[in-house]
Design brief:
Elements (H helix, E strand, L loop, with lengths): L1 E5 L3 H13 L4 E5 L11 E5 H10 L1 H8 L3 E3 L2 E5 L2 E5 L4 E5 H15 L2 E3 L15 E4 L6 H5 L1 H4 L1 E15 L6 E8 L2 E11 L2 E8 L1 H7 L6 H11 L1 H4 L4 E2 L6 E8 L3 E2 L2 E3 L14 H18 L3 H31 L9 H9 L7 H7 L1 H19 L15 E3 L2 E3 L3 E3 L14 H12 L4 E8 L16 H17 L3 E7 L26 E2 L13 E2 L2 H20 L4 E6 L4 H6 L14 H18 L6 E6 L10 H13 L4 E5 L17 H10 L4 E3 L6 H9 L5 E4 L1 H5 L3 H8 L21
Parallel strand pairs: 1-2, 1-9, 2-8, 5-11, 9-17, 20-21, 20-29, 21-22, 22-25, 23-24, 25-26, 26-27, 27-28, 28-29
Antiparallel strand pairs: 3-7, 4-7, 5-6, 10-13, 10-14, 10-15, 11-12, 12-13, 16-17, 18-19
Helix pairs in contact: 1-4, 1-10, 2-3, 2-10, 3-4, 10-11, 13-14, 15-16, 17-19, 19-20, 20-21
Length: about 750
């Protein structure tokens, strides 16, 4: 076997080591353009979890690398004159030059041939090799030369950063956040060997432009940073090494290989340095690649298997890195958080580390967060501060005259089980069991404000007198048997009406018995759907009157709160999205115009609803479409609702158009709730994939939302809040009928 490794960084060298171990007779050549001791950067970071992979892959390099580590468990966060410290994190740093030297020595021991100061501009000289590994970094020549094969995309992020070093020793992984007349600067600093630390400085492009610095003047950059962080550096100097200001590129390739050529590391995908080093990702790549080569009979099959099995892991890490990167890009948004909450927000920024994970690492730190949050919640809700430790999810929250006993809400999950809009025993059990199950707020499914406003024939309604008593039966049960409060969502299906029940075909139009539809514009949801009429002014007045009548019925039915549905492509949502609103009158065009009719509905409902009762509005903060509603638009919508006395925004996404392209990832919609909460300064509910108490507690404690709304988790387990309380050793009050459960010990 003959293998060419184009690129003599850690990935190329480590792959050569692993393959030479597996195939001692193989000819393996490493080709590197630079000298053996010429490298960019100062230190690299590894987590304890990563090191376990290295130990299994090659014990000699593992022992040499770990023997050279500067190890730390603490993270120090410096902001607004305070220092917050969290422990138990388990990271190590080392010199990039040293790791290269270790890998080069190991290659020499095994018989790998290394060619330094050797240029390459393609693969032509290596066509006779069985496998060509391209590990030539972010500016990969191979990726660029064969872009038609790899189909790369590069997203250059807006922030600027510069990779510096210093002779200052930092006792922990250290973050500095410091503002001057030019803007806010962030620093990621860590020791990588005795007497030396990496010192990465990051800022927005506006701050960089304000500073007067230039991209390539290293001396000016060093002087500026030394002056700005003089106190933090303690008289130590800044070190330079190709320390040019740059933007971070998120690189992704549609294909990782062709023929016998494969990309690894930064050449094929990047992950922001805020979650670790590219060296870690690259070395994990080649461990997986070496395993694939050894597990298959031929190279093409091995490369295909490598990409198929390793891509999901890498893409998941990239999504995590993007979430972390965004936090640092948007630090200005978090400046007004209390320092203790700011620190917790930073530590949980990737959403991979949540309240529970952090509690396992540093229970004292999380206890201090919980105590602070409980005190803040008591003040906000005009209740007594609890005497015992209270997880954030079980603290109260006040909206006008309504105080919720905790911050877990049941999502408005359509049941499609009503008859002519009348809810029945199914709804009583569905909603009642989740109220008894411990949720603080139960949001009932959409109640259509008219028969023609239903989504399906099985949808609930609030448009006939008999609907009121049916709903009253449910609200009376909840009020009489637990502390939960109940809201009903009011909506009009718009162009997404007259469809089948979900299990008969989601969003599929009825085969017969359709009713006329309305929307902002006369465009169907799909070509198979009925084309709605573009609503005119007289119809607007009728729909507004329907919402007011439904509001009055909700009050008569005993609802504690109402929620208006402005999302998911239904009637009011169709006004908000530029994809569905093609009007050329005063209700179309600008966001201000598109908001006009939904706000008219809100104002009429607010006037009809008791002043001491809150109103929520659910919105789709993103259409998941390039030409759709933007996050800036969503902030504008939330601010407009705030100004008209909306009490809280239920922040969802999507459902507006059939050709949406949802972004995947954990808690992906949470960032919308956070942005609206902090920028529009309105309470928010986070929805979408919240399924663990660790996630719920983290969302709340970090200030990402005020309530967590659960759907599938509570469909699966109506008693999810009670089970979460048990697992956190928190006593959630039970109904008297169930008091005997307190002596029950669950067993597996």
């Amino acid at each position: 076997m003959k293998i060419a490794c184009l690129g003599g960084g850690p990935a190329g060298l480590y792959f050569a080591i692993l393959m030479k171990k597996a195939y001692p007779a193989a000819q393996i050549d490493v080709i590197e353009r630079n000298r053996p001791d010429d490298t960019f950067g100062f230190g690299v970071v590894f987590s304890d979890a990563t090191l376990e992979n290295f130990a299994e892959a090659d014990r000699p390099t593992y022992e040499q690398i770990t023997g050279s580590f500067a190890h730390w468990d603490d993270i120090d966060i410096h902001c607004n004159g305070e220092v917050l410290t969290s422990t138990g994190h388990g990271f190590s740093g080392m010199s990039r030059q040293l790791i290269l030297a270790i890998l080069q020595r190991r290659c020499a021991e095994l018989g790998v041939t290394m060619h330094f100061e050797t240029e390459f501009d393609g693969i032509e000289d290596y066509r006779h090799y069985d496998l060509i590994l391209a590990a030539d970094g972010v500016n990969s020549i191979i990726r660029q030369r064969y872009a038609d094969k790899f189909q790369p995309t590069i997203d250059w992020r807006p922030n600027r950063f510069v990779w510096l070093g210093t002779t200052q020793n930092f006792p922990a992984f250290t973050f500095f956040f410091k503002a001057n007349e030019h803007g806010l600067w962030r620093v990621h600093a860590y020791q990588y060997m005795v007497g030396f630390s990496t010192f990465i400085v990051e800022c927005t492009d506006r701050t960089f432009q304000n500073s007067g610095l230039t991209v390539e003047d290293e001396d000016a950059t060093a002087a500026y940073v030394e002056s700005l962080f003089a106190e933090e550096l303690g008289g130590h100097k800044i070190l330079k090494n190709r320390s040019n200001w740059r933007n971070f590129p998120i690189i992704d390739c549609a294909h990782w290989h062709f023929d016998n050529v494969v990309l690894v590391g930064d050449a094929v995908h990047t992950a922001h340095f805020s979650i670790g080093s590219g060296t870690k990702l690259a070395m994990e790549d080649v461990i997986a690649l070496a395993d694939a080569v050894q597990s298959h009979d031929d190279i093409p099959t091995a490369l295909a298997a490598y990409e198929t099995t390793h891509r999901p892991t890498t893409e998941s890490l990239q999504r995590t890195a993007l979430t972390s990167l965004r936090w640092f890009e948007e630090v200005e948004r978090y400046r007004d958080l209390a320092p203790i909450q700011f620190g917790f927000s930073l530590l949980t920024r990737s959403l991979r580390i949540n309240h529970h994970n952090l509690q396992q690492r540093d229970p004292d730190y999380v206890a201090s967060i919980d105590e602070w949050f409980a005190a803040s919640a008591a003040k906000q809700s005009d209740t007594a501060k609890p005497d015992t430790p209270t997880p954030p999810m079980f603290t109260p929250f006040k909206l006008r005259g309504l105080t919720l006993p905790n911050r877990i809400a049941v999502a408005p999950i359509c049941q499609y089980a009503a008859t002519d809009g009348i809810v029945d025993d199914w709804h009583l059990v569905h909603l009642g069991s989740r109220a008894i199950g411990g949720a603080g707020l139960v949001i009932a499914e959409t109640a259509a404000v008219s028969a023609d406003g239903r989504i399906s024939p099985g949808c609930a309604g609030l448009y006939k007198p008999e609907h009121v008593q049916a709903w009253r039966r449910i609200t009376d049960f909840i009020h009489g048997n637990c502390d939960a409060r109940i809201a009903v969502q009011l909506g009009h299906a718009g162009r997404k009406g007259a469809t089948k029940r979900a299990w008969e075909g989601e969003d599929a139009p009825l085969d017969s018995g359709q009713w006329p539809l309305l929307s902002a514009s006369a465009s169907p949801f799909t070509p198979a759907h009925q084309t709605p009429a573009a609503i005119d002014r007289a119809q607007m007045d009728t729909v507004r009157a329907d919402f007011v009548a439904a509001t009055e019925m909700a009050q008569a039915a005993g609802s504690d709160m109402i929620e208006l549905h402005f999302g998911h492509g239904y009637l009011l949502s169709s006004f908000l999205s530029p994809l569905t609103n093609r009007r050329d009158d005063e209700y179309g065009g600008s966001l201000e115009n598109r908001l006009r009719y939904p706000l008219e509905i809100f104002a009429a409902v607010r006037a009809a609803w008791p002043a001491d009762k809150p109103i929520s509005v659910r919105i789709s903060a993103s259409d998941w479409h390039a030409d759709g509603l933007t996050e800036v638009d969503a902030v504008g919508i939330a601010a407009a609702l705030r100004d008209r006395h909306c009490d809280i925004v239920d922040v969802s996404a999507g459902g507006v158009v059939a050709d949406e392209q949802p972004v995947e990832g954990r808690l992906v919609q949470t960032r919308f709730a956070e942005r609206l909460r902090l920028e529009a300064e309105i309470p928010t509910m986070a929805v979408g994939g919240v399924s663990s108490y660790g996630d719920a507690n983290a969302i709340l404690a970090a200030g990402r939302a005020d309530l967590c709304v659960l759907a599938r988790a509570l469909m699966y387990d109506p008693y999810w809040p009670r089970h979460a309380a048990h697992e956190q050793a928190y006593r959630l009050p039970w109904p008297a009928q169930y008091e005997s459960v307190l002596s029950f010990i669950p067993r597996i």
